[in-house]
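In response to reviewer comment 3 from the previous cycle, which asked for concrete evidence that the modeling workflow produces usable outputs, we include below a single protein chain processed end to end. The sequence was submitted unchanged, and the resulting structure tokens are shown without manual editing.
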Amino acid sequence: MYEKKIAADIFWIGVNDRTTDLFEGLWPIERTGISYNSYAIKDKKNTVIDLAKAFKTDDFLSQISAIFPLSEIDYIILNHMEPDHTGVIKTLRMLSPDAEILCTQKAVQMLSDYYGITDGIKIVNDGDTLDIGSRKLSFHTVPFVHWPETMVTYDPQTKTLFSCDAFGGYGALHGGLFDDEYPDIEYYEKESLRYYANIVAKFATPVQNAIKKLADVEIECIAPSHGLVWRKSPSRIVELYSKWAEYGKTGGDKGITLLYGSMYGNTEIMMNAVSDGIASTGLIPRTFDVARVHTSYMLPALLVNKGVIVGAPTYEASLFPYMSVILEKAALKNIKNKTAVYFGSYGWSKGALKKTLELTEPLGWEYIETFEFAGGPTQEDIKKGYDLGRKIAEAVS
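The workflow returned the following structure tokens.
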């Protein structure tokens, strides 16, 4: 097997996953795949940084064996305990019994809980270093990016940051490892945003804290556990993560995400009127039918756009169920401080508006107007919807 070098004596030993349908059992990746990036440093003390998901054990072990024998691994560094980064650890421990596992204090109990591993562990604290021969690796804790035990590892010799989930993204790697190898870098940036919105958005403040903490570390390469290795423009992915984290405070940029659901077409008629009103100002909304689009794809738009429109009918004296799902996910991911409007149809009872306000109240969404109509919309209602679209477009401009 051939070697894939990151830098002098540093190798990519990760694996691509193009068969998993749902990442974390939640987020669709059947179209994009994902990489589990792991790294090997060949030095006086052979070191492996982060691992892979258990069902890729054979591929993963073959990658290591191409660099050095499994029996000659001295250190296994676990930056983060989630099973997509540690799943192969039980097998690797059996094949590399003398390897010492390095992790934070909070990871120790997780090693026992997940894998029954309680010995051969070295606890590292913030700022600790590890001499592996020609270099001293350093460790920096970044709690809640995105679990409490998380740390990153830094190689000062090559100025490489092994950042685990931080600065990661969806998307299997298609031969190339680095950002400068892909002419369609926008694809990976888009998938990094979706990954951030799905996985990391809840922890925006810890992300910002981690970026500030590492600001004085000289970084020329960022090697995350998912997605591209950033060697040409490592600052680019940091800037993107910083911007996305800031949206939790600012509410996002100029733009509108229009979420709608419709049972018999009445709310959809109003949605079209609202869309026309928005478009008349020169702004085009990102529109999603909540019954037919997975929340994974709606969350990025909700995160980046300041304006949100909730268009949904009353269903059994409450909110259209698929709309409840996306609003609950928005609350879970702390999608805050939006400028919003609501509209929707009702039949024998109202209830959708009340539930919408209840779900989004903790998020600080400011509703500049709400509009409910009975049954099908009248021409007057449609005109009101058009004006509603113009009003929110002007509010976020």
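The chain has two domains: 5-249, 253-392. We consider this sufficient to address the reviewer's concern, and the full set will be provided in the supplementary archive.
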